[in-house]
Write a sequence for this structure.
């Protein structure tokens, strides 16, 4: 068929379309395959990346590509803002996001509850275990893995009861509430210890945000007049603060001066839950509440499927992908999004959501008949806020462009950029940003 | 498309900006512009509008397809106005300013043209 020129106007399928691209033939128009003939795209994990890719595949394929999410929980609990549960400013319940809208006629995503256990890449099937009953095997046309992170083990001794108190609270849920309860149960002038894993880990500013928020809360609730000793001990396996260096340095040294002790190069060695001691490469520290964020690795199903081919210094592994489509570099027809993937982008909810849109766009193109070429110049971004006190926050912003030379996503010149100051205005904006962000993913 | 008609944006003579965008490899598979919200029949014939993927970077803060109920609504804003606002934002020491500085003029034009094609709800 004739090529579309800049001046041609095509009428097809009742739609009037203008040819704005150069040299793209009509035969290359996206025509999603007939519904009956297409096995669904199956998405493992209904978090920020998984929910977004499901929604946008449906949106951008005009609901012609069926999508099924396999999710182990009834609904999603947001990690973003969950540090405010620790200070009592938010409840866990307020961070729950159901899949109601995704499942509604608006999008028509199928959501099944269960834990994905086996991927058979050759047969293009995935098996999951529902909460009750026998395992179920589903066929897929393409598989999207968004399983998030797992933790690497660390040496933890003590009684079962005391060991159970050493939580990460890095996946919002019961551990978040446990940590909140432990903070509330602290005596005045008790110490809280937070260990930060080696990069890459989920949400680079997150641990520092937590330290600042807890310091603020302790100042107002668990600190005696005249106490000059630090009560928030931050043991960072990294050599320096990994995000928003200026604002978190200011938070620790000025805003919460005397309350926070920041210790870099403090790689976790072991924890004695009975004695309340944390042994690191930078010394041994004792506290009442011990919050260990262990080193990360890709979610189990991604590792079991053999996709986690990029080892980390901490002993974990993540999944290399082509960032034009997020298709695995190991296994075709399987895409890996968000925290489980190994890219130059941070592991965080906002950018994972944008990765998911690039992936959704790619899948719609790839599943068109005939397949359309991938967008060769995707952009992704991240914009997030970090509360520093109960009423103030900072922010962090970065935009990535695809670099065809390195075939990676590269930060725009001069980025990332952090807030010029910590302010109450930022805190207010944060609430609006969070509301719209979650709406873009789940509604 | 329903007979009542979703108003598809028709650009009989795409502006040089669009051509530049295509030349940069931006949404090169573009075959047409359909107003988001068009029926599935319509969209099945013409997918992948230019600038849609770029513009999706905005939706985390401005709502899906720029249909925010709170932060500035982008859907339906004229391309000229959006381009001017983005250029102005680049001078601001704000989170939006930081975001805006991450895009080239051609990328902003592609985003602006896309949102101009989206019908405001």
């Amino acid at each position: 068929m004739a090529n579309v020129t800049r001046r041609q106007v095509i009428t097809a399928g009742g739609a009037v379309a203008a040819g704005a691209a150069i040299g793209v033939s009509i035969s290359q128009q996206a025509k999603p395959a007939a519904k009956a003939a297409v096995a669904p795209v199956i998405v493992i994990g209904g978090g920020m990346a998984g929910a977004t890719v499901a929604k946008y595949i449906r949106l951008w394929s005009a609901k012609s590509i069926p999508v099924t999410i396999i999710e182990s929980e009834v609904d999603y609990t947001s990690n973003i803002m969950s540090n405010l549960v620790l200070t009592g400013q938010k409840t866990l319940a307020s961070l729950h996001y159901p899949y109601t809208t995704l499942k509604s006629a608006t999008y028509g995503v199928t959501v099944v509850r269960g834990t994905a256990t086996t991927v058979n890449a050759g047969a293009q099937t995935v098996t999951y275990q529902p909460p009750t009953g026998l395992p179920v095997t589903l066929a897929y046309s393409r598989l999207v893995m968004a399983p998030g992170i797992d933790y690497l083990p660390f040496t933890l001794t003590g009684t079962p009861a005391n060991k159970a108190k050493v939580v990460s609270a890095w996946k919002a849920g019961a551990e978040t509430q446990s940590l909140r309860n432990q903070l509330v149960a602290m005596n005045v002038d008790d110490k809280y210890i937070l260990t930060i894993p080696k990069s890459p880990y989920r949400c680079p500013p997150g641990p520092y945000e937590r330290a600042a928020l807890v310091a603020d809360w302790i100042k107002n609730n668990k600190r005696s007049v005249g106490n000059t000793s630090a009560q928030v001990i931050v043991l960072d396996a990294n050599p320096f603060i990994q995000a928003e260096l200026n604002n978190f340095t200011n938070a620790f040294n000025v805003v919460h001066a005397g309350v926070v002790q920041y210790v870099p190069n403090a790689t976790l060695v072991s924890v004695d839950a009975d004695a309340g001691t944390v042994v690191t490469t930078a010394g041994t520290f004792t506290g009442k509440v011990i919050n260990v964020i262990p080193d990360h690795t890709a979610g189990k199903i991604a590792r079991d499927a053999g996709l986690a081919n990029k080892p980390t210094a901490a002993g974990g592994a993540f999944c290399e992908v082509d960032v034009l489509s997020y298709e695995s570099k190991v296994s075709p027809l399987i895409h890996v999004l968000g925290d489980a993937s190994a890219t130059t982008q941070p592991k965080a909810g906002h950018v994972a959501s944008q990765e998911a849109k690039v992936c959704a766009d790619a899948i719609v193109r790839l599943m068109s008949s005939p397949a359309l070429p991938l967008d060769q110049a995707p952009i992704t971004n991240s914009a997030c806020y970090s509360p520093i006190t109960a009423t103030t926050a900072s922010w962090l912003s970065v935009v990535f462009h695809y670099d065809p030379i390195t075939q990676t996503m590269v930060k725009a010149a001069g980025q990332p950029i952090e807030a010029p100051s910590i302010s109450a205005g930022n805190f207010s904006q944060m609430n609006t940003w969070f509301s719209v962000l979650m709406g873009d993913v789940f509604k | 498309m329903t007979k009542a008609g979703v108003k598809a944006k028709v650009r009989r003579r795409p502006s040089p900006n669009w051509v530049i965008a295509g030349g940069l490899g931006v949404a090169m598979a573009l075959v047409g512009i359909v107003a988001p919200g068009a029926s599935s029949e319509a969209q099945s014939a013409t997918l992948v509008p230019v600038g849609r993927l770029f513009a999706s970077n905005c939706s985390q803060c401005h709502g899906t397809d720029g249909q925010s109920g709170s932060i500035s609504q982008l859907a339906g804003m004229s391309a000229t106005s959006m381009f001017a606002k983005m250029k102005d934002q680049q001078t601001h020491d704000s989170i939006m300013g930081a975001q805006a500085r991450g895009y080239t003029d051609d990328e902003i034009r592609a985003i602006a043209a896309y949102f101009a094609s989206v019908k405001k709800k």
Notes: The helical segments of chain B are 16-23, 40-45, 52-55, 59-62, 79-89, 95-100, 105-117. The two ends of chain B are 18 Å apart (CA to CA). Residues 13 and 19 of chain B are 10 Å apart (CA to CA).
